[in-house]
From TrEMBL:
PROSITE patterns: 3_HYDROXYISOBUT_DH (PS00895). Residues 2-160 form the 6-phosphogluconate dehydrogenase NADP-binding domain. Catalyzes oxidation of L-threonate to 2-oxo-tetronate. Can use either NAD(+) or NADP(+) as cosubstrate, with a preference for NAD(+). PANTHER family: 3-HYDROXYISOBUTYRATE DEHYDROGENASE-LIKE 1, MITOCHONDRIAL-RELATED, L-THREONATE DEHYDROGENASE. Its EC number is 1.1.1.411. Belongs to the HIBADH-related family. L-threonate dehydrogenase subfamily. It is an enzyme of class 1 (oxidoreductase). It comes from the Bacteria. This is L-threonate dehydrogenase. Keywords: Carbohydrate metabolism, NAD, NADP, Oxidoreductase.
């Protein structure tokens, strides 16, 4: 199977590496030429993805947002116009369900299958082929994409035969994930104001009912003062913004999500956008006038 991967960041590169490890022929494209060279060194094809497009069985889209997805798929040099009929687009980007539905329709007009397949699990699981994929699309799209899905995921949730269902489930997941990260930041900094240092917090709370996967994954970043990005702050204004747009269109009130969004917006405005999303704790620390591990005055 020949697969093109658009977007070789922390998630996309790990996913491309998993495809290579599974024996698939992988072609990469990224705005950063060094990322493409890195994929070549890891076993990816040295052939330019654009030149290989007509022979691809599948295209994996792992870019930042719907604007970049639109350019990759349907722009002036969009790949959809170059794919052969019967190929499948596997869109792993967090987008609004309505965009996923429209993208599927446009692909179908050209005889291209489309799988709405947002992902969850982080960069480590991406590199190990252990992601969770929330996918929806036709049975033909699933069948065509199956070798790639098997290489990428520990669990593929098949959520129906129409694009949009996968993105709707991802919106639910992001609502929870974003609010859990903000809640972790609020709790660990609140603990510090009460004389509970971050290490003690980590010894106790993961063993109690108030824990969450996000707390156990992100709180160690705060405790160590290491904000090397695994998932950046700037992802959350986008993703929680999508969640609130979808909620608003459905006349659904989501006040906890709105509050979490404002904390990530504040963190981005403070210049923390490219740091790990656990850096949202710095907003709480600044407001409380406390110091986090590895920092001064919460900065």
């Amino acid at each position: 199977m020949k697969v093109g991967v658009f977007g070789l960041g922390s998630m996309g590169f790990g996913m491309a590496s998993s495809l290579v490890r599974a024996g698939l022929e992988v072609f990469g494209a990224d705005v950063n030429p060094d990322a493409v060279k890195r994929l070549h060194a890891a076993g990816g094809s040295a052939t330019d993805l654009d030149a290989a497009a007509a022979g691809l069985d599948a295209v994996l889209v792992v870019v930042l947002n719907s604007t970049q997805t639109e350019e990759v798929l349907f722009g002036d040099n969009g790949v959809v116009s170059k794919l052969s009929p019967g190929a499948v687009v596997i869109m792993c980007v967090t987008v609004a369900p309505d965009y996923a539905r429209k993208a599927a329709e446009r692909c179908s007009e050209r005889g291209i299958h489309f799988l709405d397949a947002p992902i969850s699990g982080g960069s480590v699981k991406a590199a190990n082929g252990k992601l969770s994929i929330m996918a929806s699309g036709t049975s033909e799209a699933f069948a065509k994409a199956r070798p790639a899905l098997d290489a990428l995921a520990e669990k593929v949730f098949e959520l129906g035969d129409a694009a949009g269902a996968g993105s709707a489930m991802k919106a639910v997941n992001q609502m929870l994930a974003g609010t859990h990260i903000a809640a972790m930041a609020e709790a660990i900094t609140f603990g510090i104001t009460q004389g509970i240092d971050a290490d003690t917090f980590l010894q106790v709370i993961p063993q109690c009912a108030g824990t969450s996967w996000m707390l156990e994954n992100r709180a160690p970043h705060v405790a160590s003062g290491d904000y090397t990005p695994h998932s950046a702050v700037d992802i959350w204004p986008k993703d929680l913004g999508i969640v609130l747009d979808v909620a608003r269109a459905s006349k659904f009130s989501a006040p906890l999500t709105a509050a979490a969004l404002q904390q990530f917006v504040a963190a981005s405005g403070m210049g923390l956008g490219r740091e790990d999303d656990a850096a949202v704790a710095k907003i709480y620390a600044r407001n409380a006038g406390i110091e986090l591990p590895g920092s001064k005055s919460g900065s």
